[in-house]
Design a protein that fits this description.
124 residues, 5-stranded antiparallel sheet, 3-stranded antiparallel sheet, 1 helix, 10 strands, 5% helix
Length: 124
C-alpha cells in the first residue's frame, strides 16, 4: 500500500489517499452521469476510509442532487472537484486524479467510462 497526496488549485484543500494500486490506465475512469459529464474529471477510487482531508476541510463545499446519496466535494475558493463518495457504492470514494501530485491526467489517453447515466436507483 502507498499514499498519494492531492490538492485543489489554490491549495486551500489537501488530501491523502492510501492505495493498493498504481494510478495508471487500468485504475482510472470517467463517468457519464449528468454531473461527471459536465465536470469532465478523470477519477480513481479507493475504500472511503482510506481518504483523509488533511487541510481545509472547512473550505470544502458538498453538492448533492436527486437521491442525495452521493456527495461531491469542491473547494469553495477555486471550485476544483477534489473527491466524492459514491451512490453506487457508499463504501467507496472517488478522487480527482488531476489533483494528485506528480500525475499528468492528460497522459492517459482513452480511459474506461463508468455508465453512471444508466445506473437505476435499485442498483444504487
Amino acid at each position: 500500500m502507498h499514499t498519494v497526496t492531492g490538492r485543489c488549485h489554490c491549495g486551500a484543500v489537501e488530501f491523502e489517499v492510501d492505495l493498493d494500486h498504481e494510478i495508471d490506465s487500468q485504475h482510472v475512469r470517467r463517468c457519464n452521469c449528468s454531473l461527471c459529464r459536465r465536470k469532465g474529471a478523470l477519477m480513481s477510487g479507493a475504500p472511503k476510509e482510506r481518504l483523509r482531508v488533511t487541510k481545509g476541510a472547512d473550505m470544502l463545499s458538498v453538492y448533492q442532487w436527486n437521491t442525495n446519496i452521493a456527495e461531491h466535494y469542491f473547494c469553495k475558493n477555486c471550485g476544483i472537484y477534489t473527491h466524492h463518495f459514491r451512490r453506487s457504492d457508499p463504501t467507496q470514494c472517488g478522487f480527482n486524479v488531476a489533483c494528485i501530485e506528480g500525475i499528468d491526467s492528460l497522459s492517459f489517453g482513452e480511459v474506461d467510462v463508468f455508465d453512471g447515466a444508466s445506473l437505476s436507483l435499485e442498483e444504487a
